[in-house]
Write a structure and sequence with these properties.
alpha+beta, 8-stranded antiparallel β-sheet, 11 helices, 24 strands
Amino acid sequence: MYKKMIEEYIEAHKQEMIEDICTLCRINSEKMSYEEGMPYGRGAFDALIEALTMAESYGFSINNYDNYVGTIDMNDKASQLDILAHLDVVPAGEGWKETAPFQPVVKDGKLFGRGTADDKGPAVAALYAMRAVKELNIPLTKNVRLILGTDEECGSSDIAHYYAVEKEAPMTFSPDGAFPVVNTEKGGLNGHFTAEWTPSEALPKLVSLEAGIKVNVVPGVAGAVVRGVEPSILKKTAESCLDKTGIRFELELRGEDTSITAIGSGAHASIPHEGNNALTGLLTFLTELPLAECEQVTMLRNLIELIPHGDTEGRSLGIAMSDELSGALTLAFSLLQVTDCGLKGTFDSRCPICSNNENVLEVVRKNMADKGFTLHNDSMKPPHHVDGNSDFIKTLLRAYESYTGRKGECVSMGGGTYVHNLKNGVAFGAAMPETDNRMHGADEYAVVDELVVSAKIFAQVIVDLCS
């Protein structure tokens, strides 16, 4: 019911919806330093206030949970459906070509800008779905609530704050993945490890290494400083490593020191094979230089043996595995800092349903210990699964099929979403399965037509579940 009315409404408000998305995407809402009353900094606060003001102007009842989370309610009836989206973004990163990260622009049917796909675009599509149902006066007997968080990218402490005072709705979907329905999410191990050694002044040497911006982002750029290495050797090694790894190296001489910048391509840590890791490329480069033998150099060699360039399945760590329900384990070496006396690093591993502490966590701990590293984790994040035969899932799939003409099915993903810890929560939209919207990378984009059809699908789901 109401399909024709919903389609006509969303099409008539298409440009207005895109403009509202752009308004939010002009705000740099990556996590910043705490300010009084702004738990995640000025940017996240500004985005939340802007979104709530926008919703209130459309006649919705809003609530602000201490600037951690904002909510938008359709009515005051019994809770039935929550739509869980987020307004924070990962850092802009390097390599943008289509536009500046926070200057959204439409080109060739694509809306470019940080947050357009993850997750401001889908959040606004959900808001417009609610607008459509409200302004078309479609009768509902239960409430739908749009929940807007501001810390999804850095641990979801915002949602913990919210659910400390509010109950889960009977059904929840998050437009923070892809269609059709993601009802299975892998577990995870963000492995944090360290090592220490005695400093050495012998030349040539590695002075320092810094790589990575977030644990869930494959580094597209990594940097190091070496001292006492001949420029000709550096250049020759850079050429050979480019051939071997596909990573490009920029060299800048500063007296005895040379600054090295490794340039690969970033990606979301759940799909590390779609990037080219500058961090592991840089380690490959450094271990091929004729650096003076010392504990630091030995540990770098040990590290690249455990996580070699191109190993995105954890084979060298001894944890490669897969199952039919959730697919293969993935691994991204995402953060590393090396000094003259030690290192600290973090990898992001997305683990299938068959994973557990014994076959992942303890295997990593032992294999790293054998090479001189200390793993500091004492637990893993468990996987998440919702029954694909439930009425809730079947309703979502029917709406998807109705508005796209495609076959709906349940799929699994490596990237954990907001609903990972919710009993009856799934990811639903807002991109089509084949769309690579460069989430967390340069030139992130959302396909305009996909945002439009998402709004239509979400509106239909609201009607079907809340009437």
